[in-house]
Amino acid sequence: MSAPGMDRSNLRTPLKDVTGLGSAKSGTHHFIVQRVTGVALVLLTIWIVGFVLALVHAGDYAHAREMLRHPFAAAWLIAFVVIGFWHAQLGLQVVIEDYVHARWLEIASQLAVKFVCAGAALAGVIAIVRVYIGQ
Amino acid sequence: MPQNARPLSPHLQIYRWPLAMALSILHRATGIALAVGLLLVVWLLLALAHGPESYATARAFCASWLGLVLLFGWSWALFFHLCNGIRHLFWDVGKGFGIAQAYRSGIAVIVASLVLTGLVWAAQGGAA
C-alpha cells in the first residue's frame, strides 16, 4: 500500500477518506451489522422453528421448562432473542429514517424502538436464565 | 410545511407493480410484523418463567382464534423474510441482478415461503 494520499488511482483526498463516513458518521457499519445479524438469524431461525414445534408437541408446563433446561437450548434461545431484537432495531431504524419526516417524531420513535427492543431482549434473557437455573 | 404543497413525480399508485417492488415492500412489512411477533416470543418466555397459570394463559391465547390467525401470519412472514433475506444476501455479493433472474428468485421465494409455512403447520397438526 502507498502512503496515505499518494495513491493516484484514488481521486478522493485523504481528508475526504477520513471524513467520508456519511451523514450517520458511521459509514457502512449499520449495513454490515444488519447483514451479520441476518446471517446469524438464518441459522438460529432454522433451529428455533424446530424447537418451537417440539415445544408445541411437549404441551405441558413441566415438559416445556425441562426443554429450556438444556444448556444448548438456553444458549440458542438467548442468542435468538438478543440477535433478533438487534436485527429488528436496525431494520425499524431504517424504516423510521425513510418515512418519518418530522424531526421530533423521528427522534422520539427512534428512541422508543431502541428502548423497547433493548428492554424486551433483556426481559427475554432474564426469563430464559430464570427457567434455566430453575427458579 | 411547504414541502407538502409541492407537486410529486408519479408515485406508487401510478405504476403497475413489478414483482421486485411488491416483494421489496413485503420484506419491510414482514420485518415490521416480525418485530412485533418477537414481543410475543418474549411474552411466552416470561410466562414460562413466571408459572403454570401464566403459561396456560399464554398457550390459551395462542390456541384462540385470534392467536392462531396471528401465529399463521407470523409463520408465513418469518419464512418469507427468511427466504427473501437470503435472496438479499445473494444480491449483496453481486449475484442474481439480471431481470429474469430476479423474477425467478422472487417466485422461488414466494413458493418456498408458502411450502415452508404449510410444512410447519402440517408438522404441528397433531398437537393440541
Give the gist of this structure.
Chain A has helices at 14-19, 29-58, 61-68, 71-99, 103-132. Chain A has a single domain, classed as Up-down Bundle (3 helical TM bundles of succinate and fumarate reductases). Chain A is mainly alpha-helical and 135 residues long.
Please mark out the parts of chain B with pLDDT under 50 across 5 or more consecutive residues, or reply none: none
Please tally the β strands of chain A and state the result: 0
Radius of gyration of chain A: 21 Å
Please state the structural category of chain B: mainly alpha
Write the CATH homologous superfamily of chain A.
Answer: Fumarate reductase/succinate dehydrogenase, transmembrane subunit
- The name of the CATH architecture of chain B is Up-down Bundle
Helix content of chain B: over 70%
How big is the Rg of chain B? Answer: 19 Å
Name of the CATH class of chain B:
Mainly Alpha
Count helical runs of chain B: 4
- Under CATH at level 1, the class of chain A stands as Mainly Alpha
Count of structural domains of chain B: 1
Q: How many domains make up the coordinates of chain A?
A: 1
Helix run count of chain A: 5
Protein traits:
heterodimer, A: 135 residues, mainly alpha, 3 helical TM bundles of succinate and fumarate reductases, 5 helices, B: 128 residues, 4 helices, 77% helix
Write a structural description.
- The complex is a heterodimer of chains A (135) and B (128).
- In chain A, 76% of the residues lie in helices and 0% in strands.
- Chain A is an all-alpha fold and 135 residues long.
- The radius of gyration of chain A is 21 Å and the shape is elongated.
- The model of chain A has no long low-confidence stretch (mean pLDDT 88).
- In chain B, helix 1 runs antiparallel to helix 2 and helix 3 packs antiparallel against helix 4.
- By secondary structure, chain B is an all-alpha fold.
- At the A-B interface, helix 2, helix 3, helix 4 and helix 5 of A face helix 1, helix 2, helix 3 and helix 4 of B.
